[in-house]
Amino acid sequence: MNDPGALRKDPAKARTALAKRHPHWGEALDTFLKLDEEHRSLLKEVEDMRSKRNAASQEIGRAKAAKDEAKAAVLLAEVGRLKSEMPEKEKLFSESEKTIKAAAMNLPNLPHESVPVGKDENDNPIVRTGRAPGKFDFKPLDHQTVGEKLGILDLAAAAKLSGSRFALWKGAGAKLIRTLGAFLLDRHARSGYLEVSPPYLVRPEIMEGTGQLPKFEADMYKTVNTEGDKTTTMYLISTSEISLTNMVREEILNADKLPLKMTAFTPCFRQEAGSYGKDVRGVIRNHQFDKVELVWITKPEDSLSSLEQLTRDAEDVLEALNLPHRVIQLCTGDMGFSAQKTYDLEVWMPSEGKYREISSCSDCSNFQARRMNARFRREAKSLPEFVHTLNGSGVAVGRLAAALIENGQQADGGVLLPKALVPYFGAERIAVPS
Length: 434
Hints:
With 434 residues, the protein is an alpha+beta fold. It folds into two domains: 102 residues, Serine-tRNA synthetase, tRNA binding domain (Helix Hairpins), CATH 1.10.287.40; 310 residues, BirA Bifunctional Protein, domain 2 (2-Layer Sandwich), CATH 3.30.930. The chain is built from 13 helices and 16 strands. It has an eight-stranded mixed sheet with strand order 1-9-10-11-14-8-7-2. It has a three-stranded antiparallel sheet with strand order 3-5-4. A hairpin with a 2-residue loop joins strand 4 and strand 5. Helix 2 runs antiparallel to helix 3, helix 3 runs antiparallel to helix 4 and helix 7 packs across helix 12. The chain is elongated, with a radius of gyration of 27 Å. The termini are far apart. The mean pLDDT is 95.
């Protein structure tokens, strides 16, 4: 959530920044500011009525002590009038409070001034390119075809169990997924990340904290449990960013504990509501997938430099596995809702002849921290300040497996694995079944 005070103080600056994302966000800001003005006007009315009621109540006591019954009667009538009018006014104020909160929660983060202005992915500049794509002396197949021929990927079985956009890995494929999770976690833990195994189900307010709710309700899977007259709603995490970032919810951290760096390997669940017809083949866009996540909690002045390191940590994985890749910076129109600045890592997919996203690394400034009330204190007696939060895929395991299969495929149908992975997997290649 953006700082309401900053939005009020310089609405023109905020409007210009939000309009860089899309013109309609500037209009949404105007709506928020109008609601905010009405809300603060209602607040003043309610506070004035409470003040008058309290003052009149005190005067009644003094009037009665002075035996001024006429004055006491007038004051009693005034208190009665205020008491009769206040419930309706307080109800309007309570409704306004919910409305203004919803409007604030639906405004995206203001993009940082260093983010290039653009409409969509076509306006994303390339920051750097890693290892160049390899050359094949045969036409490379897509990962689904290779996986099915090797007997390690069975999407038909997954569809029978769960429908479209689910994957079933088996044999060497299941081992590959498990191996990649261990490889990634070990690598990140060695570079200073705290490994965490978090819950996969969280409360609605936890989803609000990182920005999944209310904006992306349609993409979330949820469970509803009713026991007697009590109903409990829980959400399946779409990324472990949700669990990891909310670990500092409602806390005031000591400055010397920052930065906090955490990592987790979890399944993730997304309905992909807006992706009908996109990436229907293979495991690029599934409703359930495994991912290693990286989360940083930092001081405000450190977040931009931390984003550079976080992105390097994710990129290190691709370099260690000898995968052709590149880093791009997302323009204002392509950035996620909670981010002020984002880099995407893209890996080369030979069957398509193009790069595909495998990691997204974002600096969310204090946008999530305000929603979570996550703060830190520089010194024992200093006022608390909001932390900055960052997150990035380190990386998406299903997409990583797909990239390894496509880039490592051999003419005989087998898959050659990177040397760094061999000690984990226990073999240099996934061979064609005899």
